[in-house]
Structure prediction request, 1790 residues.
Amino acid sequence: MTKYVYDFSEGHKDLADLLGGKGANLAEMTSLGLPVPPGFTITTEACQTFLTHGAEPRDLAREVDEHLASLEALVGRTLGQRDDPLLVAVRSGAKHSMPGMMETVLNIGLNDQSVRGLAAQAGDERFAFDSYRRLIQMFGKTVLDIDGELFEQALDAAKHAKGTTDDLALDAADLRRVVGVFKEIVVKYAGREFPQNPREQLRMAIRAVFESWNADRAILYRRQERIPNDLGTAVTICAMVFGNRGMDSGTGVAFTRDPASGAQGSYGDYLQNAQGEDVVAGIRNTVPLAELGALDKASYDQLLGIMATLELHYRDLCDIEFTIERGRLWMLQTRVGKRTAAAAFRIATQFVDEGLITMDEALTRVTGGQLTQLMFPQFGAGAARRLIAVGVNASPGAVTGRVVFDSYTAIKWSRSGEQVILVRRETNPDDLDGIIAAQGILTSRGGKTSHAAVVARGMGKTAVCGVDAIDVDTKGRRFRAPGGIVVEEGDVISLDGTSGEVFLGAVAVVDAPVVSYFDGLLSTDEIAADDLISSVHRIMGHADAVRRMDVRANVDTPADARRSRIMGAQGIGLCRTEHMFLGDRRIHVERLILADTDEEREEALATLLPLQQQDFVEILEEMDGLPTTIRLLDPPLHEFLPDLTELSVRVAVAEARGEAQEGDLRLLQAVKGFHEQNPMLGLRGVRLGLVIPGLFAMQSRAILEAAATRVRAGGDPQVEIMIPLVGAVQELETVKQDIINVAREVRTRTGVHLDFLVGTMIELPRAALTADAIAQAAEFFSFGTNDLTQTTWGFSRDDVEAVFFAAYLEKGIFGVSPFESIDVEGVGELVRIAVEKGRSMRPGLKLGICGEHGGDPDSVRFFDRMGLDYVSCSSLRVPVARLEAGRAVVLTEDF
Amino acid sequence: MTKYVYDFSEGHKDLADLLGGKGANLAEMTSLGLPVPPGFTITTEACQTFLTHGAEPRDLAREVDEHLASLEALVGRTLGQRDDPLLVAVRSGAKHSMPGMMETVLNIGLNDQSVRGLAAQAGDERFAFDSYRRLIQMFGKTVLDIDGELFEQALDAAKHAKGTTDDLALDAADLRRVVGVFKEIVVKYAGREFPQNPREQLRMAIRAVFESWNADRAILYRRQERIPNDLGTAVTICAMVFGNRGMDSGTGVAFTRDPASGAQGSYGDYLQNAQGEDVVAGIRNTVPLAELGALDKASYDQLLGIMATLELHYRDLCDIEFTIERGRLWMLQTRVGKRTAAAAFRIATQFVDEGLITMDEALTRVTGGQLTQLMFPQFGAGAARRLIAVGVNASPGAVTGRVVFDSYTAIKWSRSGEQVILVRRETNPDDLDGIIAAQGILTSRGGKTSHAAVVARGMGKTAVCGVDAIDVDTKGRRFRAPGGIVVEEGDVISLDGTSGEVFLGAVAVVDAPVVSYFDGLLSTDEIAADDLISSVHRIMGHADAVRRMDVRANVDTPADARRSRIMGAQGIGLCRTEHMFLGDRRIHVERLILADTDEEREEALATLLPLQQQDFVEILEEMDGLPTTIRLLDPPLHEFLPDLTELSVRVAVAEARGEAQEGDLRLLQAVKGFHEQNPMLGLRGVRLGLVIPGLFAMQSRAILEAAATRVRAGGDPQVEIMIPLVGAVQELETVKQDIINVAREVRTRTGVHLDFLVGTMIELPRAALTADAIAQAAEFFSFGTNDLTQTTWGFSRDDVEAVFFAAYLEKGIFGVSPFESIDVEGVGELVRIAVEKGRSMRPGLKLGICGEHGGDPDSVRFFDRMGLDYVSCSSLRVPVARLEAGRAVVLTEDF
Prediction:
């Protein structure tokens, strides 16, 4: 028979699936002998049954009764007992904490009779009625679904009548009246009396917790966070202890150590004469935890002892909630604590130094996301700054610029060299050009999934969103901030996208010290002197020692190659050649494209050959001894030609004026010829190589002659030639044969025998699906997950990110943009298929990934699980990829 | 020990894998007791070993020697014996007949000595030297790789010197001289003497056959036809019999019955005093087979008897090659014969009527491709016509129009209502607009894979290509045809794309009689009176009786719905709603798109609702009682707006003239806002439904209210609402919830309870890969294989078909465009995955396909194998799909 209810003394911390995080940790503390009020937990399985069948499991009521009876026996009182009531708290507690679910109803067991018993027992009528009004308020809001504002307003009215804003100024009589008003609210808005039967209160609260699993906001949150819908929530029922029984009572929250400094026991907040929700609501000002030492030294010392115990037991920083009732300390909750990025690194190495965890475990305590945060540009530590508002930290970084209110001005000013910050109430697709032109985005509405936030993150722009303290007046070209501050168009502000802070005036932006460290600019002494840097240094060293995957960089220039090598790249995973065709060389490409005859085409190719060759010589020199994957030309050719619409307009206007030039007309004809409705799905990649005679042969020749030059100079070039956009093995075979022919010629000409690989990008679904066939011709695969994401989902990043990603994130269709973090179910499935099929045909097939996901923390772990040999990412992300490749080895979760 | 050589008496017809088609059928005829010259076959396994190791298998020479010795013993002569030589023919023969491989070397065993022995034995020196020159010519060309033209020229020179063009006019002395010249050619171009050792001749010929497997043209052909590269070819070695031993000798080819009339034994060609290659080369005129009866009645009667035997044995029409040597008949080859589309149907039912095959077998003897041919428009049977040239039948159909030579004229004339035929030497992407404007395409160069052919087939335009008899003078705006005919621009010509014929002047085009039959326009008597129609009728009846899959139609209008129902459609698989938004209604859509406020948007939707509803009422009336799948709006919205470039030019020119209109400027702004770089990958399908409030709800309401109207009128509407472009189940869930809400409202309003399904297109790789999740919300899947092909391959049909498909087909990267016939390995794999995952989640999931592949013969069989419930295609293809769905059941090959 399924057991639906567990006493706190029966569970332990690893039962979060069954008891929820809260219930499991309460059980753990109970078995550690810590002072936890007695109680029990209803399992998630009971909730699942309720949700499936619309009714509680048959045995649940009996089990709850039994456990309640034990509880009553233990404390010597019964629930709602008239003269001396047992009161309980009912809390939801799923495996994952989840906003939108019913959270807590305190003081269950109070009614019109027992409130008087409580008053008599406590000798404190104010306390009893305060507790009762809290019950009706929480019960009304969360169980009876009454708008919470109604209760707040009634409470405010009572304070107003009393001429105060402090709820402590309300006396027993005031609170008795408030209780009366609250009960009227219940009747009016719930259509029923507030239930006087304590058992009914409990039963309704439990059911409300179950039902809150399917509250709209909870569903949305689960959809966004990819939490399965069928887990259900547990319910903990716990004897009440009271922090609101006078000034010798109180409630607090604390971390077991200061996440910034690592000092134990000094970090937390305490509020006298209050219940838990008051701390969170910020009704009155809390005092620092250390002051509890002065208020109640015994409890304080006991608390420090418990915190030490918890840390030792959980072997991690914990956060806790506690209540002191008349000088007696009770632990109400604990869990592994959240921390800042810097604290995560510092604490991890502190724990190692204290002998609590191993370096492997330290590696599990930090994330690539945290390292990324440490690497964003920052405002200089000493720089003067004037904070004017704080909003949602929507897209990280630090920028300073002049305020503009529309795209037109943003573009105009940025063209004249100004740094600008676009300020809008909220953005929509029409603002796209302005977002592109601006350094930073500031909005007064919307959160992390708003249009501005999504687009800014996609473009790597700094953004602070949802700063509701500012009032944006687009027409007046100004915004108002608290304190009467008015910021006019053209005024300078600064945004910290990592903290969400908005500053007036310029603040100097500096490279993060961690970046200087990765750039090799810090001496050993300097590293040792900074505890953050030295923590990072130690953890990175361990990550490098344990990781299985190599990390390479995506770079196109010799300078970037050098930097990536310093950052720890073990090769180049993607050297794009299209960037080498821009600038002065664009004209040769244009000639190549517009060539009418074979001779003209060959001439254009002949001009490009030595230029390309020199590019490759320099890059191969920088990467000497390391594998260097060079991708042949990929983008559609018209990218090298003028824009069709712009040119059409220019020519038409010139014609209207009778000033049309013959050259322009011919150019327009050619541009029209190369115009494509969907260039991303057009003539590019290997298709170019097969359709434009000599192009890929020229590039291959440039690469192989550059390698031969390096060999003759005593170097060790490790060339891997990569063919983009292959969908069928026949494409690769055809191009590969050309490359082999070129290699033979180069060998004859130079006398140098080169070892090199020919491989392909896997960036089309068909390439992944037919990877076994393709592996017959490919010596390596490199996943191009950007294009693979576009074709798998059938949307182009450029076109849709700005238009509907915000809506999709809002509706929970995405948890995160599939361009930020790999879509495991869809794109990831193709990766899995390609790895399996590819290696089935060629067991030693070298596998890598060179899409942007190569630097995304979650994605790196996924690629490790898939068995890839390396990830490749932009230089600046190389450290993150190294860290995550190490974490992948020590973490045990699967995908 | 592997056996590498099989005597003709050892094999049989089902050993084509091992003995090649030719060897297997020779063995079969031998065991039937038919007069086959003695011989043996070297297996494909020997060839495979040779190709893998670069050398013949160790035992091969010994086995060949043994079989040759038996052969010599049998005929009582040895290979190349001086006084009376045994001569042999060496032929290649793979499983699949394959152009580009070495085909035949006759007369092996002749040399400077044995030619005299042959002359003496035959008493015919001319015959002997004619045979010897043939050996040197064929051996030189195919074994020694000398340009065949050199021999032809030398032979022509000899004839010229004699003042004749007839090779029979050359006497023994002439041919002796020709032999001398041929031997000089060998020395000069092969760098060696023609081998005099008969064993060496044989060994070299066998090796040449092996090596010809990897000739460029053979490789290309295999790539195009998807024939595996490792099969290898067999080699048959057969004692020579001579059709060139005088006028009582000869050679011929025949069908066992006339494929057009079905009459036995009357269909073939015979050539006196000739060897086989003369018939194919068309050197002299052949006579109809029936005349053999007059020339050599005994042989003729024997041949008719053999043909009857073969037909009875193979239970199919066979084609044969035979030789008569001095009045004695020898069978040299047989195989199941090719036939025209009409003949295939007629013969299939004839065979049934003759009791040779069952109706199931009859169904395997015809193809959907043949039925398609019978359904193309044709020139009226009695219409006068003047044939001026014949080319490659590149894209079927029959058209009449005025000749134009460039795109500009094509567009101009077609806009003024002319039907035009674009005539070019060859086409390239610049001609695309002209091809679109023209009814037909005629080129003087290129074959079935040329640009013109590929593009025309893709667009369903009639094309005749590679008419090398015409000389196109684009600048002079005329072309010349044989017989001094000059066709000027504006002259009328007619093209038969099914036969490749070009006619001068107009020829009346009529619907094919088969189409009239399917349109239900023929009476029972009319059907019975036409043997083709009655064959089709019987076979279609059987296909319908046996097929497992339903066939539906893709139709958007009531009229088309009615026609498709007559054609046999069992429902609508795809009713697109976008076509309902064109014409007069475009303005409402524009208003919807440009709406600034919710009110404007709702107003536009409110205007569209009743219009849509009426559309659906009419279609549901036509399809009463049959399932009707209606797809919600799919295309990107800007398709309803003016083209960005055109509008930009118009506005810019107006501005330059100071005539800009405010309205145009605002429209341009909006068009810019909706412009997408890659609209196919943009805001369309379900994304529209999620981003444009109210759009899908309006459409669903129109559908469901229409259904309610039908129910109240006593009808039986079977509505299936289909959501396009779903990539994630969350999209479908969100839209489905809206539809359910709308349904509830409609039910409340109308009082009609409707049963309807909500399902999705599977047209993105991600939808296929996550089909298990999607099936949780979808009640049916319909594969949209057009879009699925585009995203799986990462190319857009519009952009690439014209640009690189021709190159791809030429290089063998495609065997056939994946838009014509489903790409089994790539797109098909996604279909397989989606079917498997979808049904694993929802066992009864209804599965169909509504892409254009639904009417492609090969694809239909694939979909049957995948277990789909129905295919849906355009009305005109419904009969083809019915036929192929029937064939799928009786055919045994798998994919």
